[in-house]
Amino acid sequence: MKLLTEVCSIPTAPFAEQYVVRYVERFVARRPKLRLTRDRAGNLLIELPPKARRGARSPRWIFAAHMDHPGFVATRMIDRRTVEAAFRGWVQIDYVRGTKVRFFEADGTQATGVVTDATPAEHDRLAVPQRVTVRLSRVGNVTPGVPGMFDQGPARVKESKLYSRGIDDQGGLAAALAMLEQLHRNPPAVPIAVLLTRAEEEGFVGAVAAVVAPELLRKTDRLIAIECSAAQAYAPQGGGVIVRVGDKTSVFHSGLTYFLTQSAEHLARKDKAFRYQRALMPGGTCEATVYDAYGYTAAAVCVALGNYHNMDRAKKRIAPEHIDVNDWKNMVKLFVHVARTADAYTGDNAALKQRVTARYERLKDLLTSSVA
């Protein structure tokens, strides 16, 4: 839980993920078996080599999360108490006007203010902010390039839920790091990696950079996109980690999705506390769609998120995002189990074919004996 609350308290915004990067660098530096590389776009790859040398020839299993969350990037001081900022990611503009903002400097100092004006742009037929003006609560200076976030507080746990100014996708990133924390002392049989991308909230810019001119990825990789996705009535908070069969735009690799589902089912039989769901989550589009479009084998896992992009739709105002803590713990359990059993995956639907064929062989004679 310490890892989850730490990561979900890190300030970030699209194209201003520098504080997340520093956290990841420190995380890797403390664990000598991990290796960190980055591409020209600033995406990060954390690799954990397999236990045995022969496992290095196996395809890598890459758990992918993004480092940003919708927010503000300071551009200039208009006067001693007024900041101009770009808004990155999308939130409906009516939620943003008049809301409180907090900017985060590299030295740890912070500046608070209120959005006094927002210039509209269009996203998916919705009016969203593009440029905003923030009136600071006191005279100060905000450095161009630092991130600002809705002033909804750092991560904290209340009863069974975690609340924070940003959980999409810091919660997913934290789950990937928690997996590595459990695996790095005793690595599994196959290579495991975590891909951390930039500017997902601006249209998967980092993920597209990773596949258009790949420096970190290989076509043989098996990619599992991690998200905190808007809760659905049929996939509620508290129902467990979600094997995400698709998103608003596409459906994902059938064989890999089936393997994840069977892994979850196997884990549920062994661990009575483990819960999972399987659902198409159409609240948004995730990076698995990008990887699939560029010819990679990709599936997805998520947890149900409340107040998606900080929008409390019932009250029509900005609010903290929230997830169920046990859903997140179950996501980590699933990742660790998949990593430790990944060498059983054949790359196709062989397990499903074997299952349906066995039933066919048992009952096929009835097809001819029952023909009128």
Please give a quick description of this structure.
By secondary structure, the chain is α+β, with helices and mostly antiparallel strands. It has helices spanning 2-7, 18-29, 93-96, 170-183, 205-212, 254-270, 287-293, 325-341, 350-363, 365-369; strands spanning 35-38, 44-48, 61-66, 71-79, 82-88, 100-104, 110-123, 126-136, 147-150, 156-158, 161-164, 192-197, 222-230, 241-246, 276-280, 297-305, 311-312, 317-318, 321-324. A hairpin with a 5-residue loop joins strand 1 (35-38) and strand 2.
Please provide a written account of the structure.
With 372 residues, the protein is an alpha+beta fold. Helices cover 28% and strands 31% of the residues. The strands form 4 sheets. Strands 1-2-12-3-13-16-14-15 form an 8-stranded mixed beta sheet, sandwiched between helices. A 6-stranded antiparallel barrel has the order 4-5-8-7-6-9. A 3-stranded antiparallel beta sheet has the order 10-11-19. Strand 1 and strand 2 form a beta hairpin. The protein starts with a helix and ends with a helix.
